[in-house]
Amino acid sequence: MTQLINCPSCGSPVPLSDQSPVACVFCEASVVLPPELLEVARQRQSAMVSRAAAEEAIAALSRGGGAGARRWAFALTVGLPLCASLIGNAKVPPLTGLSLLSLAMLPALIPGALTFAYVATAREVRQSYRAALSARWVRGHQCCRNCGGPLAASERELAATCLYCGTDNLLGVDAEEISAYAGGVSRTLGEALAQLRIRLRLLWVSLLVTALGVLGLGVGVHWVGTLAP
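User: That's the sequence. What structure does it adopt?
Assistant: Structure tokens below.
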């Protein structure tokens, strides 16, 4: 990582650029950058995160977990057991008591509960990644989440790559949302998105295993009930 250049007037780090001098974002003093840092900035600018990659990242971090998904999950959780109960009572002979609970209502509860758990947990995972990837606010200015260097980015940009350390940063995320997450993720948006997809897949696997366990419990309860005198 390139060492931060501090403003001689206020002592704060100044944004790295491929042109010199640069203005300090905190006190607006003019700071001359050494030639070796100008070359580092030119090299890293050629590999800066593209706007398309930033849009993909923000879409992936914002997708799902909305009010509509939660309503569907609630409807499944309530509606399917009710339907299963009606179907079980319509059978000949009808399912009653423990058999109705273990073979109809309990399995019917699984899809809705599984969906609700995934929606709620995946939303928290996405929010934590979004916060961890975001630039940090320092005295009203956005700075790199890794090294603390000021980011030279326009208001229209969705993300910026720090020219000091090469870390990608999402821009414009509220400071309160950032402070709610203390962990860290990979340096680039691509690596972070790959990690996010793995975590969501593992979440699905863990929920499916839980669902199979609940289903097995229902079958076991029914089996025990059939053995009772």
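The mean pLDDT is 75.
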